């Protein structure tokens, strides 16, 4: 099958070389008409800077429809429901690949289309399940294939440039065999998938965490060092979350991972310094992490290259779970296109490369945290849904995935409420709360933030309701309870009351004592909450594996049902944004701290 627009050079050459064939092809064929696949309004803040250079290379990702994703989803909910007989019966890599593999007709149709543009099998990268194809092609060819025009777009506020289009088309007979193609309409750029670090301040490395008399809290029955109100350490987290004295094993097949992106790198020397400061048992054996490079991600160990996000994540996740096997994944990816120096390639976004890698991994870590996200509305819905389906596949493998809920309260990712825009990207300019992605995906565990002990919600804790994903049944009762307590008419039109609600859980989020490039810092953000929660999930998995039980896998259905009583309900605080006071932390689930923070000893009893 050959579909070419009449202006195509290739068609012209076919005419001259093969007049008879060309005659046949030149017959007007309805199948060869292009149909619009996706069209968007250019998001606010982006303007056209100029035409895209024709030879600019694009790494194009083509998503083929996953033929049986609904079956996979059914399996996932069965094996994640603690009251189901199949609870914990995680699927094998091959079983999942079979369920998400595209229909052979889609493969054939798309292969034919690619080869009609001179793209050979050897030029095509395929994911393990065959549901993603990757090709590197110059703009001029992509424009022909997608019957579109790319431009260099400039983001006025940040000065970033990217090469994108606002619509693309496909030949009619390909339309249903392709779910999405990027980068086309994705304006949420790699760089703007920012880490959710709220604040960072340098502290004197000589000052050790203070040792004031501990505080007893009669409500929880816990004793916590007074210093934990102003400096969070591994000791503080074990005290606040009731895990003092629990020793995990290195020998039961347990594992934990941190996903790093955007050239933000973890540093081993910093981890050693942190261990010496807070985890003596790890320091005594010079414990370190395994490094895994994803599509060429680097591992520089120069102190000047130490990344705040990666150091925070590795130090707390691995510090809490030592001696559980730990891995830092570094996914390659360059900042956006720079027109002046002619960046040779326009990178996509991080999740799909990382997901392809994890899903093809024989043994992905059982508890994983990532602290990267962006406003949901900057990610095209088609892309968000497909990445979310990838997170579901990881859950079905028995992996628990934690993500930060965001640092803008009910507002956008902008930590400063005064400059939050909260205006929709769809051309209508409506004022609306701005949920974050991937927190809004129902197949991840979104972690919000708390401070102090006794704990209360931190004001920047990202929370709210997705505009892309409808509410999953596992949180229906909890969220309905919350909504029914809202004063009538509250924030009418500002949020989608039927959407997936964020966050699921929470953990401490400020004053984390971290070492970066040899210096001690205090860091805050839900960037700290997510790896903390992942560390406790690793401890829960330890308890299960020691008893011969499978890993916890996708957590949410368990948390909202059988394990609900294992959380400390946070009832003080709120998350302002968009010129409002945001939502209140309340009794039961709320859109600031979710179900609450972990009580490890209670949770352990509930899951073992
Ligand atoms: C933290 O500060 C609050 C007051 O803001 C106080 O009631 C509480 O006892 C302090 N907690 C600790 C652990 O010192
Ligand atoms: C840990 O590293 C230090 C410094 O490199 C070295 O002196 C020490 O022997 C190591 N300890 C162990 C247990 O490997
Ligand atoms: C929305 O805002 C943009 C940018 O300020 C403006 O160009 C556009 O006309 C606005 N649209 C509507 C419907 O108000
Ligand atoms: C939050 O609580 C305050 C104080 O009780 C109340 O005035 C306000 O209406 C509540 N806001 C929401 C959104 O529930």
Which SSEs are present, and which pair or pack?
Elements: H1 9-17, H2 19-26, E1 34-39, E2 46-51, E3 57-63, H3 69-80, H4 93-100, H5 104-116, E4 125-126, E5 132-138, H6 139-145, E6 151-155, E7 161-164, E8 167-171, E9 180-182, E10 199-202, E11 215-217, E12 222-224, H7 234-240, E13 255-260, H8 268-278, H9 280-284, E14 290-294, H10 308-321, E15 325-331, E16 345-346, H11 350-360, E17 367-370, E18 374-375, H12 381-396, E19 400-404, E20 436-437, E21 445-451, E22 456-457, E23 464-470, H13 476-485, E24 499-502, E25 505-508, E26 512-516, E27 519-524, H14 526-546, H15 556-559, E28 567-568, E29 597-598, H16 600-607
Parallel strand pairs: 3-16, 13-15, 13-17, 14-15, 17-19, 19-21, 21-25
Antiparallel strand pairs: 1-8, 2-6, 3-5, 3-9, 4-5, 6-7, 10-27, 11-12, 18-20, 21-22, 23-24, 26-27, 28-29
Helix pairs in contact: 1-2, 3-12, 8-10, 10-14, 11-12, 14-16
Bound molecules: 2-acetamido-2-deoxy-beta-D-glucopyranose (4 copies).
- How many helix segments? 16
Q: Which structural category fits the helices and strands?
A: alpha/beta
Work out the radius of gyration.
Answer: 25 Å
Bound molecules: 2-acetamido-2-deoxy-beta-D-glucopyranose
Could you tell me the CATH topology label of the largest domain.
Rossmann fold
Distance between the termini: 57 Å
Number of strands: 29
Principal-axis shape: globular
Strand content: 15-25%
Highest-level CATH class of the largest domain = Alpha Beta
Query: What is the CATH-assigned architecture of the largest domain?
Result: 3-Layer(aba) Sandwich
Mean pLDDT: 88
Q: CATH superfamily name of the largest domain?
A: Peptidase S8/S53 domain
What number of domains? 2
Largest sheet at a glance?
8 strands, mixed
Helix % is: 25-40%
Low-confidence stretches: 4-31, 190-194, 340-344
Function: Secreted tripeptidyl-peptidase which degrades proteins at acidic pHs and is involved in virulence.
Subcellular location: Secreted, Extracellular space
Active site: 309 (charge relay system), 313 (charge relay system), 527 (charge relay system)
Keywords: Calcium, Glycoprotein, Hydrolase, Metal-binding, Protease, Secreted, Serine protease, Signal, Virulence, Zymogen
């Amino acid at each position: 099958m050959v579909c070419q627009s009449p202006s195509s050079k290739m068609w012209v050459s076919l005419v001259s070389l093969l007049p008879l064939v060309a005659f046949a092809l030149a017959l007007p064929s309805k199948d060869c008409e292009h149909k619009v696949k996706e069209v968007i309004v250019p998001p606010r803040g982006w303007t056209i800077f100029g035409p895209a250079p024709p030879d600019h290379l694009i790494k194009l990702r083509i998503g083929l429809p996953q033929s049986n994703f609904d079956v996979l989803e059914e399996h996932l909910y069965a094996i994640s429901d603690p009251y189901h007989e199949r609870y914990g019966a995680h699927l094998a890599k091959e079983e999942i690949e079979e369920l998400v593999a595209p229909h052979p007709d889609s493969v054939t149709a798309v292969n034919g289309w690619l080869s009609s543009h001179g793209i050979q099998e050897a030029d095509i990268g395929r994911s393990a399940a065959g549901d993603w194809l990757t090709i590197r092609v110059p703009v001029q060819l992509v424009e022909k294939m997608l019957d579109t025009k790319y431009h260099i777009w400039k983001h006025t506020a940040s000065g970033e440039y990217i090469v994108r289009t606002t619509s693309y088309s496909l030949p009619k007979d390909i339309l249903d065999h392709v779910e999405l193609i990027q980068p086309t309409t994705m304006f949420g750029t790699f760089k703007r998938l920012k880490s959710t670090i709220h604040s960072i301040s340098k502290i004197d490395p000589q000052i050790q965490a203070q040792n004031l008399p501990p505080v007893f809290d009669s409500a929880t029955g816990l004793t916590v060092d007074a210093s934990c109100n102003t400096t969070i350490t591994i000791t503080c987290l074990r005290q606040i979350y009731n895990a003092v004295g629990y020793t995990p094993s290195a020998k039961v097949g347990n594992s934990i991972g941190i996903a790093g992106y955007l050239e933000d790198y973890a540093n081993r020397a910093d981890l050693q310094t942190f261990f010496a400061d807070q985890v003596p048992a790890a320091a005594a054996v010079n414990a370190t992490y395994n490094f895994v490079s994803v599509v060429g991600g680097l591992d520089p160990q120069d102190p000047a290259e130490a990344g705040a996000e990666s150091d925070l994540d590795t130090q707390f996740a691995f510090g809490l779970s030592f001696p559980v096997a730990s891995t830092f994944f570094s996914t390659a990816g360059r900042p956006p296109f720079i027109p002046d120096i002619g960046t040779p390639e326009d990178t996509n976004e991080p999740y799909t490369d990382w997901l392809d890698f994890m899903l093809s991994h024989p043994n992905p870590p059982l508890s994983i945290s990532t602290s990267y996200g962006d406003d949901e509305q900057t990610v095209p819905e088609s892309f968000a849904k497909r990445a979310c389906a990838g997170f579901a596949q990881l859950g079905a493998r028995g992996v628990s995935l934690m993500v930060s809920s965001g640092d803008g309260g009910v507002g956008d990712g902008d930590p400063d409420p005064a400059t939050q825009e909260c205006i929709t990207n769809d051309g209508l300019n409506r004022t609306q709360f701005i949920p974050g992605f991937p927190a809004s995906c129902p197949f991840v565990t979104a972690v919000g933030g708390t401070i102090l002990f006794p704990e209360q919600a931190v004001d920047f804790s990202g929370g709210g309701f997705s505009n892309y994903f409808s509410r999953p049944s596992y949180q229906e009762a909890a969220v309905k309870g919350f909504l029914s307590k809202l004063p009538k008419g509250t924030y009418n039109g500002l949020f989608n009351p039927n959407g997936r609600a964020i966050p699921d859980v929470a953990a401490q989020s400020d004053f984390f004592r971290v070492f970066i490039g040899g210096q001690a810092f205090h860091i805050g953000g839900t960037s700290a909450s997510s790896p903390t929660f992942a560390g406790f999930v690793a401890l829960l998995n330890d308890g299960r594996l020691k008893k011969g039980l499978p890993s916890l896998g996708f957590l949410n259905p368990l948390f909202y049902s059988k394990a609900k009583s294992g959380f400390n309900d946070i009832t003080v605080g709120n998350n302002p944004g968009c010129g409002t006071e945001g939502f209140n932390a309340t009794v039961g689930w709320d859109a600031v701290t979710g179900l609450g923070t972990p009580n490890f000893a209670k949770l352990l009893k509930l899951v073992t």
